[in-house]
């Protein structure tokens, strides 16, 4: 089921501004071996596939699939994101006994906190983790992890692809821009709410964000006065 069904033609200037936000949010850092991979749940099953592939390539010996139902999937699915992710990983060949499922979280902060609690309850001593999320969530997932669980080291990865080829049957380019704008706004406001560490934001990136807000791409902007959802 697609998140929205519109197929509005996006103007080149809008695409350019969205591309600037995409480039900022996607960190493109090199991989390194870690103690576990944390596949952070979402509507995008490509994240599950990428996490499983990294597991099969030997980047970590343990895969944690984290996610209940979040702001996008709660209207689309009845099954927890983590359970969908774990099923994909098993189908791709990841051994059942190398997968843990955390299926109660509903936001990025809970992904990290509940995963930490799960690993501790299993007696897993973790010194490093590879966070796997959507491309435009790399920066925000890392900023959240450094705030919630700062004692360990992190790497971040996401499925390969560009802003232009990311849209598929589940998310249109128009909806993608709305989502990216909302996630970028959280980069700005969540540090002062204690949800993330502060990020430097170049003026070019702020200008692109403000232009997209001016154009009305505000569907997922958070109300900072009532922000309780990470």
UniProtKB/TrEMBL annotation:
Pfam families: DUF218. One of its GO terms (cellular component) is plasma membrane. CDD domains: YdcF-like. It comes from the Bacteria. Residues 35-148 form the DUF218 domain. Gene3D superfamilies: HUPs (3.40.50.620). This is Uncharacterized SAM-binding protein YcdF (DUF218 family). The lineage of its organism: Bacteria, Bacillati, Chloroflexota, Anaerolineae, Anaerolineales.
């Amino acid at each position: 089921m697609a998140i929205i069904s519109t197929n509005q033609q996006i103007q080149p200037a809008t695409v350019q501004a969205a591309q600037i936000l995409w480039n900022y949010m996607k960190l493109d850092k090199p991989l390194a071996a870690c103690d576990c991979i944390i596949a952070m749940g979402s509507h995008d099953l490509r994240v599950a596939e990428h996490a499983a592939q990294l597991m099969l390539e030997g980047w970590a010996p343990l895969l944690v699939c984290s996610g209940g139902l979040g702001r996008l999937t709660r209207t689309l699915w009845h099954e927890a994101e983590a359970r969908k992710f774990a099923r994909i990983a098993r189908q791709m060949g990841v051994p059942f006994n190398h997968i843990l499922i955390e299926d109660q979280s509903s936001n990025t902060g809970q992904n990290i906190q509940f995963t930490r609690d799960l690993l501790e309850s299993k007696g897993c001593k973790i010194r490093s983790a590879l966070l796997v999320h959507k491309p435009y969530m790399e920066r925000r997932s890392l900023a959240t992890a450094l705030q919630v669980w700062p004692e360990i080291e992190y790497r971040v990865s996401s499925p390969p692809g560009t802003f232009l080829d990311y849209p598929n049957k589940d998310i249109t380019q128009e909806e993608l821009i709305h989502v990216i704008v909302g996630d970028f706004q959280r980069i700005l406001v969540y540090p002062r709410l204690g949800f993330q560490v502060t990020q430097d934001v170049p003026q070019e990136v702020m200008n692109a964000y403000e232009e997209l807000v001016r154009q009305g791409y505000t569907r997922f902007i958070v109300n900072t006065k009532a922000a309780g959802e990470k």
